[in-house]
Amino acid sequence: MPFPSSFYRWRPHPWHGLETGPEPPRRLHAYIEVTPFDLVKYEVDKETGYLRVDRPQRTSSQPPTLYGFIPRTFCGSQVLALCPKAERGDRDPLDICVLSERPINRAEVILNARAVGGLQMIDGGEADDKIIAVLENDLLWGDTEDLSELPEVLVERLHHYFMTYKLAPGSDHAVSIEQAYGREHAERVIRAAMDDYAEEFGE
């Protein structure tokens, strides 16, 4: 009996084998690597697509939202052009933080999200934007259209997390957040990351 056309005989790579979203750059797929309950930083293994332990968190800092990346995006020259103080793109998929009212306590899940804004972050001279999104159809956050509609404290928590999550005594701190931006700029960053992906890996 033939397999149905939608069946994957082998697991697709979450970066390269999934679609960017139903209607990018507005409606996106997010592959979640870390939840707000994790005290260990996980990151997708670029070669295999499986989730790898990156490092235990040195401090008590925990991510305030779900955290992962947008498939088939890449931070290269076009993302760099939108972040004038950076020296280069970080050559990783574009990161995304997703707000959800209901606790989602497991990683390695795929969800639909809508971009509402982002943080322009530079890490070690590299453009490392963090797109901020809401879970699609979320009963609390689902109607949010722009970062300006979110409680200021939530954006502050994200800002604080990314400014501190790599801190270690005696080490240089090379992270800065240049600005928080709304949906319009977030969509420009997502389009740039999609174009960078096509340029780096092909359609």
What does this structure look like?
By secondary structure, this protein is of the alpha+beta class. It has one domain (27-201): Inorganic pyrophosphatase (Inorganic Pyrophosphatase). The protein contains 3 helices and 10 strands, in the order E-E-E-E-H-E-E-E-E-E-H-E-H. It has helices at 77-81, 152-164, 183-201, and strands spanning 27-34, 40-44, 51-56, 66-69, 88-89, 95-99, 110-123, 126-127, 130-135, 175-182. The strands form 2 sheets. The chain has a 5-stranded mixed beta barrel. A two-stranded antiparallel sheet has the order 2-3. It is globular, with a radius of gyration of 16 Å. The model has no long low-confidence stretch (mean pLDDT 92).
Core attributes:
203 residues, alpha+beta, Inorganic Pyrophosphatase, 3 helices, 10 strands, 18% helix, 30% strand, globular
Secondary-structure blueprint:
Blueprint: E1 27-34, E2 40-44, E3 51-56, E4 66-69, H1 77-81, E5 88-89, E6 95-99, E7 110-123, E8 126-127, E9 130-135, H2 152-164, E10 175-182, H3 183-201
Rounded to an integer in angstroms, the radius of gyration calculated over CA atoms is 16 Å
Low-confidence stretches: none
Q: Beta-sheet strand percentage?
A: 25-35%
Q: Kindly provide the name of the CATH class.
A: Alpha Beta
The domain count comes to 1
Described by its quaternary structure, the protein is: single chain
Strands side by side in the biggest sheet: 1-4-6-9-7
Tell me how many strands there are: 10
Helix-strand category: alpha+beta
- Compute the average pLDDT: 92
Q: CATH topology, what is it called? A: Inorganic Pyrophosphatase
